[in-house]
Amino acid sequence: MASEAPNAATGPPPAPSPVTAITGTEVIRCIGLTKQFPGRGGAPSVKAVDNLDLAVRKGEIFGLLGPNGAGKTTTVGMLTTRVIPTSGQAIVGDIDVVAEPALAKQLIGVVPQVNTLDRSLTVFENLYFHGRYFGMGAKASRAAANELLERFKLRDRAKADTLTLSGGMAQRVMVARAILHKPAILFLDEPTAGLDPQSRIALWEVVQDLHAQGQTILLTTHYMEEADQLCDRVAIMDHGKILALDTADGLKGSIGADTEIALQADGDLDALAKLLEAGDTVTRTQVTGNVLRAYLRGSAHGALPRLIASADDAGFSITDVSVTEPTLETVFISLTGKELRE
Questions:
Q1: Neighbours of 232 (CB within 10 A)
Q2: pLDDT digits (tens, 9 = 90+) for 216-255
Q3: What percent of the chain has pLDDT over 90?
Q4: How far apart are CA 324 and CA 252, in angstroms?
Q5: Rounded to whole angstroms, how far apart are CA atoms 165 and 180?
Q6: Does residue 307 sit in the same domain as residue 184?
Q7: pLDDT class for 41, splitting at 50, 70, 90?
Q8: Does residue 227 sit in helix, strand or coil?
Q9: Measuring CA to CA, which of 135, 252, 279, 283 is 20 to 30 A from 198?
Q10: Is 321 helix (H, G, I), strand (E, B) or coil?
Protein backbone atom coordinates (compact mmCIF):
# COMPACT_ATOMS: atom_id res chain seq x y z
CA MET A 1 0.00 0.00 0.00
CA ALA A 2 1.29 3.43 -0.82
CA SER A 3 2.13 5.74 2.03
CA GLU A 4 -0.21 8.65 2.73
CA ALA A 5 2.70 11.06 2.95
CA PRO A 6 6.36 11.29 2.01
CA ASN A 7 8.90 10.11 4.54
CA ALA A 8 10.34 13.55 5.03
CA ALA A 9 8.94 17.03 4.82
CA THR A 10 10.43 19.81 2.74
CA GLY A 11 11.11 23.35 3.80
CA PRO A 12 12.48 24.78 7.04
CA PRO A 13 11.13 23.46 10.34
CA PRO A 14 8.81 25.67 12.35
CA ALA A 15 10.33 27.63 15.20
CA PRO A 16 10.41 25.49 18.34
CA SER A 17 7.88 26.37 21.01
CA PRO A 18 7.94 25.57 24.72
CA VAL A 19 7.28 21.90 25.35
CA THR A 20 3.96 21.15 27.02
CA ALA A 21 4.91 18.54 29.60
CA ILE A 22 3.08 15.25 29.49
CA THR A 23 1.25 14.52 32.72
CA GLY A 24 0.18 11.38 34.53
CA THR A 25 0.34 8.25 32.43
CA GLU A 26 0.40 9.97 29.02
CA VAL A 27 3.40 9.14 26.83
CA ILE A 28 2.30 10.78 23.56
CA ARG A 29 0.70 14.17 23.16
CA CYS A 30 -0.38 15.97 19.98
CA ILE A 31 -1.31 19.61 20.49
CA GLY A 32 -2.86 21.42 17.53
CA LEU A 33 -0.77 19.19 15.28
CA THR A 34 -1.17 20.19 11.64
CA LYS A 35 0.47 19.18 8.37
CA GLN A 36 -0.31 20.95 5.13
CA PHE A 37 1.33 19.77 1.92
CA PRO A 38 1.68 22.26 -0.95
CA GLY A 39 -0.33 21.57 -4.08
CA ARG A 40 1.36 20.60 -7.31
CA GLY A 41 0.82 22.13 -10.71
CA GLY A 42 -1.38 24.90 -9.40
CA ALA A 43 -3.52 22.56 -7.30
CA PRO A 44 -4.56 23.80 -3.85
CA SER A 45 -2.57 22.70 -0.81
CA VAL A 46 -3.70 19.62 1.09
CA LYS A 47 -4.20 19.65 4.85
CA ALA A 48 -3.40 16.03 5.68
CA VAL A 49 -3.68 16.53 9.45
CA ASP A 50 -5.86 19.32 10.79
CA ASN A 51 -5.27 20.77 14.27
CA LEU A 52 -5.02 17.37 15.95
CA ASP A 53 -5.23 17.09 19.74
CA LEU A 54 -4.50 13.61 21.04
CA ALA A 55 -3.07 11.83 24.08
CA VAL A 56 -1.89 8.21 24.35
CA ARG A 57 -1.48 6.53 27.73
CA LYS A 58 1.41 4.40 28.87
CA GLY A 59 0.89 0.68 28.27
CA GLU A 60 -2.14 0.91 26.00
CA ILE A 61 -2.69 -0.06 22.40
CA PHE A 62 -4.11 3.07 20.85
CA GLY A 63 -5.68 2.76 17.41
CA LEU A 64 -6.07 5.33 14.65
CA LEU A 65 -8.86 3.89 12.50
CA GLY A 66 -9.79 5.42 9.17
CA PRO A 67 -9.76 4.98 5.40
CA ASN A 68 -6.73 5.45 3.19
CA GLY A 69 -5.92 9.15 3.02
CA ALA A 70 -7.40 9.95 6.44
CA GLY A 71 -4.09 11.32 7.72
CA LYS A 72 -3.06 8.36 9.87
CA THR A 73 0.36 7.82 8.31
CA THR A 74 1.09 11.54 8.26
CA THR A 75 0.31 11.68 11.98
CA VAL A 76 2.68 8.78 12.67
CA GLY A 77 5.27 10.45 10.45
CA MET A 78 5.17 13.62 12.56
CA LEU A 79 5.35 11.66 15.83
CA THR A 80 8.36 9.66 14.60
CA THR A 81 10.37 12.62 13.19
CA ARG A 82 9.93 11.65 9.52
CA VAL A 83 7.46 14.45 8.71
CA ILE A 84 7.92 18.01 10.00
CA PRO A 85 4.66 19.57 11.23
CA THR A 86 3.37 22.76 9.66
CA SER A 87 2.25 23.85 13.12
CA GLY A 88 1.45 22.46 16.55
CA GLN A 89 3.46 20.14 18.77
CA ALA A 90 4.27 16.44 18.69
CA ILE A 91 5.58 15.24 22.05
CA VAL A 92 6.88 11.76 22.86
CA GLY A 93 7.79 11.22 26.50
CA ASP A 94 8.69 14.78 27.45
CA ILE A 95 10.55 15.37 24.18
CA ASP A 96 9.42 17.67 21.41
CA VAL A 97 10.14 15.54 18.33
CA VAL A 98 10.74 18.58 16.12
CA ALA A 99 13.14 20.35 18.48
CA GLU A 100 15.01 17.18 19.52
CA PRO A 101 14.50 14.46 16.88
CA ALA A 102 17.63 12.50 17.82
CA LEU A 103 16.47 12.12 21.42
CA ALA A 104 12.96 11.22 20.30
CA LYS A 105 14.27 8.43 18.09
CA GLN A 106 15.84 6.75 21.10
CA LEU A 107 12.38 6.35 22.65
CA ILE A 108 10.52 4.90 19.68
CA GLY A 109 10.34 1.86 17.47
CA VAL A 110 8.65 2.10 14.07
CA VAL A 111 7.17 -0.51 11.75
CA PRO A 112 6.22 1.34 8.55
CA GLN A 113 3.75 0.31 5.87
CA VAL A 114 6.45 -0.82 3.44
CA ASN A 115 9.12 -3.48 3.90
CA THR A 116 12.28 -1.65 4.95
CA LEU A 117 14.45 -4.67 5.75
CA ASP A 118 17.97 -4.40 4.34
CA ARG A 119 18.03 -6.79 1.39
CA SER A 120 21.81 -7.14 1.53
CA LEU A 121 21.66 -8.57 5.06
CA THR A 122 20.32 -11.79 6.55
CA VAL A 123 17.45 -11.82 9.03
CA PHE A 124 19.90 -12.04 11.95
CA GLU A 125 22.04 -9.22 10.56
CA ASN A 126 19.01 -6.94 10.18
CA LEU A 127 18.39 -7.34 13.89
CA TYR A 128 22.02 -7.27 15.00
CA PHE A 129 22.99 -4.11 13.13
CA HIS A 130 19.82 -2.34 14.27
CA GLY A 131 21.03 -2.82 17.84
CA ARG A 132 24.50 -1.58 16.94
CA TYR A 133 22.98 1.49 15.27
CA PHE A 134 21.21 2.30 18.54
CA GLY A 135 24.45 2.14 20.50
CA MET A 136 24.32 -1.42 21.81
CA GLY A 137 27.59 -3.27 22.19
CA ALA A 138 28.34 -6.23 19.92
CA LYS A 139 27.68 -8.83 22.64
CA ALA A 140 24.44 -7.20 23.81
CA SER A 141 23.17 -6.71 20.27
CA ARG A 142 23.93 -10.31 19.33
CA ALA A 143 22.18 -11.60 22.45
CA ALA A 144 19.12 -9.40 21.82
CA ALA A 145 18.92 -10.50 18.18
CA ASN A 146 19.09 -14.19 19.14
CA GLU A 147 16.49 -13.73 21.88
CA LEU A 148 14.06 -12.09 19.46
CA LEU A 149 14.65 -14.73 16.78
CA GLU A 150 13.58 -17.29 19.36
CA ARG A 151 10.68 -15.24 20.67
CA PHE A 152 9.26 -14.52 17.20
CA LYS A 153 9.79 -18.11 15.99
CA LEU A 154 12.39 -17.03 13.44
CA ARG A 155 15.36 -19.09 14.62
CA ASP A 156 15.30 -21.29 11.50
CA ARG A 157 15.32 -18.17 9.30
CA ALA A 158 18.29 -16.45 10.97
CA LYS A 159 20.61 -16.90 7.98
CA ALA A 160 17.90 -16.44 5.36
CA ASP A 161 17.97 -13.74 2.72
CA THR A 162 15.16 -11.30 3.52
CA LEU A 163 13.95 -11.53 -0.09
CA THR A 164 12.90 -15.13 0.58
CA LEU A 165 10.55 -14.21 3.44
CA SER A 166 6.78 -14.27 3.12
CA GLY A 167 4.89 -11.05 3.80
CA GLY A 168 3.82 -12.19 7.25
CA MET A 169 7.30 -13.36 8.20
CA ALA A 170 8.87 -10.10 6.99
CA GLN A 171 6.42 -8.16 9.18
CA ARG A 172 7.44 -10.25 12.19
CA VAL A 173 11.09 -9.47 11.50
CA MET A 174 10.31 -5.75 11.26
CA VAL A 175 8.42 -5.83 14.57
CA ALA A 176 11.32 -7.70 16.18
CA ARG A 177 13.78 -5.16 14.79
CA ALA A 178 11.64 -2.24 16.00
CA ILE A 179 11.61 -3.44 19.62
CA LEU A 180 15.20 -4.70 19.79
CA HIS A 181 16.48 -1.48 21.42
CA LYS A 182 13.59 -1.63 23.93
CA PRO A 183 11.69 1.50 22.87
CA ALA A 184 9.19 3.10 25.21
CA ILE A 185 6.66 3.40 22.38
CA LEU A 186 6.08 1.23 19.32
CA PHE A 187 4.43 2.66 16.21
CA LEU A 188 2.75 0.17 13.85
CA ASP A 189 1.56 1.79 10.62
CA GLU A 190 -0.99 -0.47 8.87
CA PRO A 191 0.98 -3.52 10.08
CA THR A 192 -1.23 -6.17 8.46
CA ALA A 193 -2.08 -4.44 5.17
CA GLY A 194 -1.71 -6.90 2.33
CA LEU A 195 -1.24 -9.94 4.57
CA ASP A 196 -3.28 -13.11 4.18
CA PRO A 197 -5.74 -13.89 7.02
CA GLN A 198 -3.46 -16.46 8.65
CA SER A 199 -0.48 -14.08 8.72
CA ARG A 200 -2.71 -11.29 10.01
CA ILE A 201 -3.89 -13.38 12.96
CA ALA A 202 -0.29 -14.45 13.69
CA LEU A 203 0.78 -10.81 13.83
CA TRP A 204 -2.19 -9.95 16.05
CA GLU A 205 -0.87 -12.55 18.51
CA VAL A 206 2.57 -10.90 18.45
CA VAL A 207 1.03 -7.49 19.15
CA GLN A 208 -1.13 -8.87 21.97
CA ASP A 209 1.94 -10.51 23.52
CA LEU A 210 3.84 -7.21 23.43
CA HIS A 211 0.86 -5.45 24.98
CA ALA A 212 0.67 -8.04 27.78
CA GLN A 213 4.29 -7.18 28.62
CA GLY A 214 3.43 -3.50 28.99
CA GLN A 215 4.53 -2.16 25.62
CA THR A 216 2.83 1.08 24.57
CA ILE A 217 1.66 0.79 20.97
CA LEU A 218 0.15 3.28 18.56
CA LEU A 219 -1.40 1.37 15.68
CA THR A 220 -2.94 2.71 12.48
CA THR A 221 -5.37 0.60 10.50
CA HIS A 222 -8.30 0.68 8.14
CA TYR A 223 -9.44 -2.78 9.28
CA MET A 224 -12.26 -2.35 11.79
CA GLU A 225 -11.79 -5.93 13.08
CA GLU A 226 -8.16 -5.18 13.84
CA ALA A 227 -8.99 -2.07 15.85
CA ASP A 228 -11.79 -3.90 17.65
CA GLN A 229 -9.64 -6.92 18.53
CA LEU A 230 -6.42 -5.17 19.55
CA CYS A 231 -6.99 -1.64 20.77
CA ASP A 232 -7.76 -0.39 24.27
CA ARG A 233 -8.99 2.88 22.74
CA VAL A 234 -9.77 3.83 19.16
CA ALA A 235 -9.79 7.23 17.49
CA ILE A 236 -11.83 7.31 14.29
CA MET A 237 -10.08 9.61 11.83
CA ASP A 238 -11.06 11.12 8.49
CA HIS A 239 -9.81 14.10 6.49
CA GLY A 240 -7.11 14.79 9.06
CA LYS A 241 -9.50 15.13 12.01
CA ILE A 242 -10.50 12.92 14.93
CA LEU A 243 -14.25 12.31 14.66
CA ALA A 244 -14.69 10.15 17.77
CA LEU A 245 -12.50 8.58 20.45
CA ASP A 246 -13.40 5.90 22.98
CA THR A 247 -13.06 2.21 23.66
CA ALA A 248 -14.35 0.03 20.84
CA ASP A 249 -17.37 -0.92 22.95
CA GLY A 250 -17.97 2.72 23.85
CA LEU A 251 -17.92 3.76 20.21
CA LYS A 252 -20.31 0.99 19.21
CA GLY A 253 -22.57 1.86 22.13
CA SER A 254 -22.79 5.45 20.91
CA ILE A 255 -24.95 4.26 18.02
CA GLY A 256 -27.81 3.67 20.47
CA ALA A 257 -28.86 0.39 18.86
CA ASP A 258 -28.33 -3.31 19.38
CA THR A 259 -29.01 -4.45 15.82
CA GLU A 260 -28.24 -3.10 12.37
CA ILE A 261 -30.35 -4.20 9.40
CA ALA A 262 -28.95 -3.35 5.97
CA LEU A 263 -31.55 -3.31 3.19
CA GLN A 264 -31.33 -2.96 -0.56
CA ALA A 265 -34.59 -2.28 -2.36
CA ASP A 266 -36.03 -1.03 -5.62
CA GLY A 267 -37.34 2.51 -5.35
CA ASP A 268 -36.63 5.62 -3.30
CA LEU A 269 -34.57 4.56 -0.28
CA ASP A 270 -35.04 7.93 1.43
CA ALA A 271 -38.80 7.45 1.27
CA LEU A 272 -38.42 3.91 2.63
CA ALA A 273 -36.28 5.26 5.47
CA LYS A 274 -39.01 7.72 6.48
CA LEU A 275 -41.56 4.91 6.36
CA LEU A 276 -39.51 2.68 8.67
CA GLU A 277 -38.77 5.50 11.11
CA ALA A 278 -42.49 6.20 11.39
CA GLY A 279 -43.01 2.81 13.03
CA ASP A 280 -42.17 1.87 16.60
CA THR A 281 -39.37 -0.59 15.81
CA VAL A 282 -36.58 1.43 14.17
CA THR A 283 -34.74 4.06 16.23
CA ARG A 284 -32.99 5.66 13.26
CA THR A 285 -31.99 5.04 9.65
CA GLN A 286 -29.20 6.04 7.30
CA VAL A 287 -28.97 5.79 3.52
CA THR A 288 -25.47 5.24 2.12
CA GLY A 289 -25.32 4.74 -1.63
CA ASN A 290 -27.73 1.96 -2.51
CA VAL A 291 -27.99 0.63 1.07
CA LEU A 292 -30.50 1.61 3.74
CA ARG A 293 -29.39 0.87 7.28
CA ALA A 294 -32.03 0.61 9.96
CA TYR A 295 -31.03 0.56 13.64
CA LEU A 296 -33.17 -0.91 16.37
CA ARG A 297 -33.07 -1.85 20.04
CA GLY A 298 -33.08 -5.54 20.83
CA SER A 299 -32.71 -8.35 18.32
CA ALA A 300 -34.06 -8.56 14.79
CA HIS A 301 -36.19 -11.59 15.70
CA GLY A 302 -39.79 -10.64 15.03
CA ALA A 303 -38.82 -7.11 13.93
CA LEU A 304 -37.36 -8.06 10.56
CA PRO A 305 -40.56 -9.69 9.19
CA ARG A 306 -42.52 -6.59 10.21
CA LEU A 307 -40.07 -4.28 8.46
CA ILE A 308 -40.19 -6.29 5.26
CA ALA A 309 -43.99 -6.49 5.41
CA SER A 310 -44.22 -2.70 5.87
CA ALA A 311 -41.94 -2.16 2.89
CA ASP A 312 -43.93 -4.59 0.73
CA ASP A 313 -47.25 -2.97 1.70
CA ALA A 314 -45.87 0.41 0.62
CA GLY A 315 -44.79 -0.96 -2.76
CA PHE A 316 -41.07 -1.40 -2.08
CA SER A 317 -39.42 -4.58 -3.29
CA ILE A 318 -36.62 -5.71 -0.95
CA THR A 319 -33.76 -7.26 -2.95
CA ASP A 320 -31.21 -7.96 -0.19
CA VAL A 321 -31.14 -8.06 3.61
CA SER A 322 -28.34 -8.53 6.13
CA VAL A 323 -28.49 -8.39 9.92
CA THR A 324 -25.50 -7.61 12.16
CA GLU A 325 -24.61 -6.07 15.47
CA PRO A 326 -23.21 -2.50 15.26
CA THR A 327 -19.49 -2.45 14.43
CA LEU A 328 -16.83 0.22 14.28
CA GLU A 329 -17.70 0.56 10.60
CA THR A 330 -21.27 1.33 11.70
CA VAL A 331 -19.87 4.16 13.80
CA PHE A 332 -17.76 5.43 10.91
CA ILE A 333 -20.75 5.38 8.55
CA SER A 334 -22.84 7.18 11.15
CA LEU A 335 -20.20 9.91 11.45
CA THR A 336 -19.24 10.33 7.79
CA GLY A 337 -22.07 8.92 5.69
CA LYS A 338 -19.64 6.66 3.83
CA GLU A 339 -18.20 3.20 4.27
CA LEU A 340 -14.83 2.77 5.94
CA ARG A 341 -13.40 0.80 3.03
CA GLU A 342 -14.09 3.56 0.50
A1: 15
A2: 999 999 999 999 999 999 999 999 999 999 999 999 999 8
A3: 72
A4: 12
A5: 19
A6: no
A7: confident
A8: helix
A9: 252
A10: strand
- Quick check: 63 pLDDT over 60? yes
What's the pTM value of the predicted model, to 2 decimals? 0.86
Question: Can you say whether the dihedral through the CA atoms of 333, 339, 341, 342 is positive or negative?
Answer: negative
Q: What CATH number is associated with residue 61? A: 3.40.50.300
Pinpoint the alpha helices (H) of 40-135: 72-79, 101-107, 123-133
Strand partners, 221: 65
Buried b (16+ CB within 10 A) or exposed e, 95-108: bbbbbbeeebbebb
Nearest Cα residue to 63 out of 256, 201, 229: 229
Distance CA 93, CA 99 (A): 13
190 and 105 assigned to the same domain: yes
315's torsion region: left (phi>0), alpha (psi -120 to 50) or beta?
Answer: left
Q: What is the number of structural domains in the chain?
A: 2
61 lies in the same domain as 151: yes
**Cα dihedral across residues 219, 187, 53, 59: positive or negative:** positive
234: nearest Cα among 65, 109, 95: 65
> Looking at the structure, do residues 67 and 203 belong to the same domain, yes or no?
yes
Q: How do residues 157-180 score in pLDDT, each as one tens digit?
A: 999 999 999 999 999 999 999 999
